[in-house]
Write the C-alpha cells for this entry.
Amino acid sequence: MKKKLVALTLTAAMVAGVMTGCGNKAVQEDTTAVGTDGDTTEAGVQVNADAVQNLIDSTKDTVKLTVWASEEDQDFTQGVIKDFTAAYPDVKFDITLGAESESTCKDTVLADVEAAADVYTFAHDQVNELVNAGALQEVVSAYTYDVVSANVDTSIDAASVNGKLYAYPMTADNGYFMFYDSSVISDPSTLEAMIADAEKAGKKIAIQFNNGWYLYSFFKAAGLDATLNDDGKTNSCTWNQAGGTDVCQAIIDAVKTGVVVNMDDGTTVTGIQDGTVCAAINGIWNAQVASDAWGENYAAAKLPTMKIGGKDCQLSSYSGFKLVGVNPHSKNVGWSMLLAEYLTSEKVQTARFEARNLGPSNKNAASSPAVQEDKAIAALAAQAPYSTPQVIGGNYWSPAETLGQILASGNPDGEDLQKILDTAVEGITAPVSE
C-alpha cells in the first residue's frame, strides 16, 4: 500500500493555510505549485524543506484553530499545543481545545462537517465514513517528516482509504496479545505447549471465542478473512471456504482439553485474581491486573501458534489505532496539517507514552528503551506484523458471536461444521438495510 502513495507538491494555497476542500472552485483555481526542493521519500510522500517558512511568511492574520481530543487527553494535549505555538513566535495563534471522545468523534463531525474542529482525534474504524463525507484532508505532502515511513505499516493502512493517506497515526495500542504467569507457562510460542503447562498446574487459559474481536484471530491464522467492502457498509467473508472447518475443529479440540476456557473480560479478570487463570488472550486494558496478580512472574508475548488442519499457524489479531485528522473545510488547512504532524510526531508520541502509557505508532518511539521495557506494549509490537486494522461492518458482530459460542460450547448439537460456517457467513455478508 505504501508504494501507492504518490508524491504531490504543496500548493501555494495550502502553504498559505487557506486551502479548503469539497468543491471550493475559487480556491481550486487559484493555486500555484511551489518549488519542490524537498526530498521525496521511498514511500512517495514529499517533505518540502521550505514549506514551513513559506507558511510563516504568508501568514498575516491570527491563526484560529479548534482542536478536539478525548477528555482523558485534555491536559496532555494542552501542553503539546503550548509547545507548538512557542515554536513559531512570529505567528499569533488562537487555538481552542475541546473535548470529544475518539469513539464518538465521527458522529459529531458528520452532524456538521463544516462546523467541526480543524484538527480532531478519532478511532481508525471511522476513517471510511469520514472520507466518504469529505471530512478528512488527504495527506498529500509533509512539512517536517514523512508520516508514512515514520509509522508502522499497519497504522498507515488503518489511516488510508483506497491507497490514499487521510490521517496521521497517533497510537497503536488497541490490540491483543498473550499475557501469562511465567511460573506456570514455560513456552508461550505454541498453544499446545501452553495447554500442557497449564494442565500440569491445574490452571486455565482464557480466550473469548464468542466475540468477533478475538474469533477473527483463528480464521485469519488459516488465511481466511472478514473485511469491509468498498461500499463502506457490507462485508466480505471467506470463513466458509477451504480450511474453515479445520479452524472450527481446532477451536472445539482446544476447548475439549478443559484447559482453554471461553471467558469474557470480567470473568478473565476474576480468574487471574483468584489464581485459576494462568494465561489470557487479552489487551493492555487488563495487563495491569495480570501484573498485580503475578508480580515478577508476569510476562507478555505475541499470540502463539496453533495447530489448524495439522499445520502450525500463527494466530493473527485485530488491531486498533487512534488517528488525527484535518478538516478540509478549515480556514487554515496548512497550519492544521502542521499541527497534526506535531501532535503525532516521534517526540510527542514518546511523551504521550511517558505521560499516559499509550503505545506509539511511530517506529522510533516504539523502539525506545522505555517503551520496550513495558511488557504489554512490547508484546503488542511483536504481534503487529500479524495484525490487521479492524475495519468491518456492523453485520459482522452478531453472527461471529453466535459462531464463536457454538464452537466454544463444543458444538453441542453436533451440527455439520460447513453448514454452521455457511450460516455465519451468510449473516456477516448480508445486505445492509437503509
